[in-house]
């Protein structure tokens, strides 16, 4: 794991990096404050309960809350009072493998992933919570420990936008296993990826049990619907393997679409089985409406509990 981000500034320059991060902050600030941050703490539970005080026992109190030390000292039964710890630790687990470079729209999957991660980072900052990140390929290449503050969030966003990975593969399972070892207390974990990886079901289930895990799937429309443009050579950005296909063949396009839809449906069933919320994002759409919908759903669920 790299202790320092490897960023490329030769072609962009520091000024452009700052300007780009600033544009993301301006774009997300008001909407995050109004549509996300206002509901933020109502949908995520704190890490536990803090002992606050004691009071005399009253009929109906749970006997398990009796403070036996105070009871013995005063001669009268007293119960402990607790308040829920509301400070959260939020971690963005971001897939930076080469498959994220793909994008048939003005933005790539990687840029879309970084923008939604930025919105989540600013949301955590506005609520006084700790925000951290782990960037992975087929290994965890960068870990930024959770901290508070706007400057820390800006550093995270810079890393997520411009980090240059060393490896070319994708191993979601390995990244989740690393996080399960590193995060000793319950956290909110946003796993942002296109989920094109070998089987990761076991560490995924372990993370979902230990933490509040949210899957954010980033896709491009052309990954499902091939354009009718004749013979093309497709290349896997992670392996370099190439395949020539005739995209003018309607049967081929249909088979490809059906296979992709089946894969997506299987993953949706997988997240439901593990009680993990799924946010679907596409490179041809704004990420804020799906994010708003997620928070609305979690708000309704929190009211039912």
Write the layout of secondary structure elements.
Elements: H1 13-43, E1 48-56, H2 68-74, E2 78-85, E3 89-95, H3 109-126, E4 130-136, E5 140-147, H4 150-162, H5 172-182, E6 188-193, H6 201-210, E7 212-219, E8 231-235, E9 242-246, H7 250-273, E10 277-282, H8 288-304
Parallel strand pairs: 3-4, 3-6, 6-7, 7-10
Antiparallel strand pairs: 1-2, 4-5, 8-9
**CATH topology of the largest domain, what is it called?**
Rossmann fold
Largest sheet, if any?
A: 6 strands, mixed
CATH superfamily of the largest domain: von Willebrand factor, type A domain
User: Under the CATH scheme, which class of the largest domain?
Assistant: Alpha Beta
Radius of gyration: 23 Å
Average pLDDT number: 83
Which outline best applies? elongated
- Give the helices and strands as they follow along the chain: HEHEEHEEHHEHEEEHEH
Number of strands: 10
Strand composition percent: 15-25%
Sequence stretches where pLDDT stays below 50 over 5 or more residues = 1-5, 7-12
SS field, number of helical segments = 8
Structural class: alpha/beta
How many domains, as an integer? 2
| Biggest β-sheet: strands ordered side by side in the sheet | 5-4-3-6-7-10
Helical content, roughly?
Answer: 40-55%
Task: Tell me which CATH architecture of the largest domain applies here.
Answer: 3-Layer(aba) Sandwich
Q: State the separation between the terminal residues, measured CA to CA.
A: 40 Å
């Amino acid at each position: 794991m790299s202790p320092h981000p490897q960023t490329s500034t030769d072609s962009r320059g520091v000024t452009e990096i700052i300007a780009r991060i600033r544009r993301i902050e301006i774009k997300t600030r008001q909407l995050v404050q109004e549509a996300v941050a206002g509901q933020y703490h109502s949908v995520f539970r704190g890490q536990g309960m803090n002992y606050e005080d004691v009071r005399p026992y009253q009929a109906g109190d749970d006997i398990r809350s009796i403070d036996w030390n105070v009871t013995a000292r005063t001669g009268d039964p007293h119960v402990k009072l607790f308040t829920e710890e509301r400070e959260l630790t939020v971690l963005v687990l971001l897939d930076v493998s080469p498959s994220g470079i793909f994008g048939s729209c003005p933005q790539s999957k990687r840029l879309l992933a970084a923008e939604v991660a930025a919105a989540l980072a600013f949301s955590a900052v506005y609520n006084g919570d700790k925000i951290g990140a782990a960037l992975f390929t087929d290994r965890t290449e960068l870990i930024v420990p959770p901290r508070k503050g706007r400057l820390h969030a800006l550093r995270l966003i810079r890393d997520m936008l411009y980090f240059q990975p060393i490896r070319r593969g994708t191993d979601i399972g390995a990244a989740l296993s690393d996080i399960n070892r590193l995060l000793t207390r319950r956290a909110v974990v946003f796993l942002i990826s296109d989920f094109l990886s070998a089987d990761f079901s076991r560490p995924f289930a372990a993370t979902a049990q230990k933490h509040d895990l949210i899957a954010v799937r980033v896709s491009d429309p052309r990954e499902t619907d091939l354009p009718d443009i004749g013979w093309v050579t497709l290349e896997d950005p992670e392996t370099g393997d190439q395949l020539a296909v005739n995209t003018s063949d309607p049967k081929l396009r249909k088979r490809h679409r059906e296979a992709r839809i089946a894969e997506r449906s299987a993953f949706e069933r997988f997240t439901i089985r593990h009680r993990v919320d799924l946010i679907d994002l596409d490179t041809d759409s704004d990420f804020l409406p799906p994010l708003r919908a997620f928070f609305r759903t979690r708000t309704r669920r929190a009211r039912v509990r």
